[in-house]
């Protein structure tokens, strides 16, 4: 498999996540379905990707007794591809092993779950994760683990990313929110256009979580390095407005994959956050 020539292996992931899973171009051609003709990689596993496995199923194993398919995250399946996968799972082939992975099992449809054996892989404890990150040269492991909800691989990814949320934009945005002065939204629109909508909305949701926790006298969970600014904003905020804003961001997350106008989508969302916290 290291040489990208294994005949009994296929991997199915969304186009947008192929770089995330470190699939090089040769592996893309060898192991995955054909590339999309669209300019922007999809965050979904499409039905064509699942259907392209049919030819693979007709082949006998070449180097052993079984073939292997890795597919995920399962929550990235859309309705059509979910139905296509379900048909495959309803009539399993004896010489093929399916390894399905998910980061949000609650989003996987029950009919798929009922046909799988579960193997939970829990997040390591904070002490073990911190030691591992330090061994990788990470200087602020606890802060990154907080932003990554305790997931060490995600924390390492944030450490190596040019788009680490606090450094890239959240710190400046929080300062603007705390000042209460009008924000130059164009600066943030230009920055946030460079990352997927679901990521920067998730950062806003994390920030709002910290505001609500602080408002209730608890410690921030995600952005502890911004504790002072978050505390100041929370003191001036209305808890009911924070709750309404929470519902709003959930709705924005649902629209994250298909906004009609990306620039307007970012601008309106940030403006809504500002107005909710400064009225």
From TrEMBL:
Keywords: Nucleotidyltransferase, Transferase. Its EC number is 2.7.7.7. Signal peptide: none annotated. One of its GO terms (molecular function) is DNA-directed DNA polymerase activity. The keyword Signal does not apply. The keyword Ribonucleoprotein does not apply. GO terms for biological process: DNA-templated DNA replication. Pfam families: DNA_pol3_delta2 (PF13177). One of its GO terms (cellular component) is DNA polymerase III complex. This is DNA polymerase III delta prime subunit. It comes from Taylorella asinigenitalis (strain MCE3).
